[in-house]
Amino acid sequence: MRTDISARIFTFSALAGGIALGVLLMTPNEAARQDAVATETAAHAAGTDEAVPALSAFIPRPEPLPPGSARLRKEDDGHYWANVRINGADLRLMVDTGATYVALTRRDAERAGLDILALPENVQVTTANGEVPARSAMLKSVAVDDIDVSGVRAIVIDDGLSQSLLGMSFLNRLKAGA
User: Fold this and answer.
1) Which of 1, 65, 94, 97 gets the most CB atoms within 10 Å of its CB?
2) How far apart are CA 110 and CA 86, in angstroms?
3) CA 93 to CA 70: how far, in whole Å?
4) Local structure of residue 42 (DSSP, 8 states)
5) Where are the extended beta strands (E) located within 67-173?
6) What are the pLDDT digits (tens) for 31-86?
7) Is the pTM of this model over 0.90?
8) Cα–Cα dist 34/11, whole Å
């Protein structure tokens, strides 16, 4: 009998200690998230339409950008990508500090309103596929987030470029920041 009571006391003590440790290790955000889940569950069970904070309210959001700045994020493929507006057309370009110029595929150049056949084919560029001819162009505007640069030199590669690149002819026009 004494052993049975001792085992129960030990089990209770271990359980209480585990709960206390779990409460101590819970972060404020986790506690708030659990409170929101409990509130939402209680409101749902009571059948009320009470306003309940969404769980997304507890997910940290990036700070707003200062005026004249942009935020680039490394994607799952290991590259940095940017949503870019070129001459008013929304395009997605890979950021490439090894590219001397903004380099556009024929398709993206046409979307940006460039008359491909009117551009001089006067540049030879080295790509991963070897040397290819390219056409030089001047872009009226290139914008990323709150940064807008006018008069950006670019090249258009008809064949041999699978993805448009945001190169140094744009990046060199930016001021370094934190």
Assistant:
1) 94
2) 11
3) 14
4) H
5) 73-74, 80-86, 89-95, 102-105, 123-127, 130-144, 147-157, 165-166
6) 544 555 454 555 555 555 555 555 555 566 667 777 777 877 888 999 999 999 99
7) no
8) 26
